[in-house]
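Notes from the 1:1 (GR / supervisor)

We went over the backlog. Supervisor wanted to see one worked example end to end before approving the batch request, so GR pasted a single chain during the call. The sequence is below; no edits were made to it. Supervisor asked that the structure be written out right there so they could see what the output format looks like.
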Amino acid sequence: MPVRDRINTYEMVNALKTTPLVVLQNHPLMVALAPGDVTEQSQIAFSLTNGNILIGTVAPNNGTTVVIRALVTPTRNWNSPHRFTALQRFNPIAEDFWVTERQTGCSLIILDWGGQMSMGHLLPHPQANYNRVNRYILDHAPLTAYAEIQRQSLKPEVTQLVEASKIGGVNPQRYILVQSNHAAVNQKNLNVIGIRSNGQMSFYMQTNTAGGRTVQQLRWTAWRPYLPYFTY
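Structure output shown during the call:
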């Protein structure tokens, strides 16, 4: 029943905006985007299919799918010439949603500049790109060490991206950093989505495992250039 299916999807869009923690606890989320390097305001497919929330290219081309407007942040590949291109700034409540792709080893940085926000999603490097010492560790150490090397190697790249995104050398006011390397080792995947509610953009993380899922609203950390990042 395509009409009923589409109505169910519209109802899910509204429920996600009004009760995000409940919806994300009860429905697996999957976002897949076309390749790219820059965040854009875009129309994107949204579907409720078999209890799953599917956004972007993963949404089926059938009667369950509707189109929503969202800020869309693709993953920047390790070899992209635009990996460290300055992040765009957006009015965070210009759209109802802010979506990016599922994380299975990436680092996601969200920046609040005070009135405007940016998001950057960095794919980790392949093993061949690490130095000899780290490659030896990666070859012989447990998977948790592999994940930690990925996390630590991406933090300076996150800093480089933030530096490139400053205007007049002014720091962001606060940030959210999600690094999914350990989650990937533990057979987990992370989905981060921004949802506009009560006049502000809030970000939520859904963590899926074989045993179920957990959902949390991500908290902001004040920017302190002399302190290590707080990392989810």
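Supervisor's comment: Residues 119 and 161 are 10 Å apart (CA to CA).
Batch request approved.
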